[in-house]
Specification:
The protein is mainly β. It has a domain at 43-88: Thrombin, subunit H, CATH 2.40.10. The chain is built from no helices and six strands. It has strands at 21-26, 40-44, 57-62, 65-74, 78-82, 92-97. The protein has a four-stranded antiparallel β-sheet with strand order 2-5-4-3, with no helix packed on it. The protein has a two-stranded antiparallel sheet with strand order 1-6. The two termini are 33 Å apart.
């Protein structure tokens, strides 16, 4: 899954000059939202590929269509899957520098 930055209500500096640097911080509620616990589920290990490990992404099907999940825990008989966006719950920090204006 390739993350894309959705439109935000966070203030973004529009008036910068060449050579100027700024750090922009976008809180989770203005980016990918907070982690939603209802998107984390535990499934039987037989429902996923045998060699699955923490950090792997799997594609599945939900009632709304295709879904990508991340494996966040592997136990003897179960796997915990997270359908939240990988950046959910995280503050986004961007270091900006104006290199030129054309």
């Amino acid at each position: 899954m390739k993350p894309t930055l959705e439109p935000t209500t966070a203030p973004i500096p529009l008036e910068m000059i060449v050579g100027e640097k700024k750090t922009i911080e976008i809180e989770p509620e203005n980016a990918y939202g907070h982690v939603m616990e209802q998107l984390i589920s535990v499934v039987d290990k037989t429902q996923v590929p045998m060699d699955v490990k923490v950090g792997d992404t799997l594609q599945g099907q939900s009632t709304q269509g295709p879904i990508v999940v991340t494996v966040i825990e592997v136990n003897e008989n179960t796997i915990t899957l997270d359908a939240n966006h990988p950046l959910a719950g995280k503050k986004l920090i961007f270091d900006l520098e104006v290199m030129g204006i054309s």
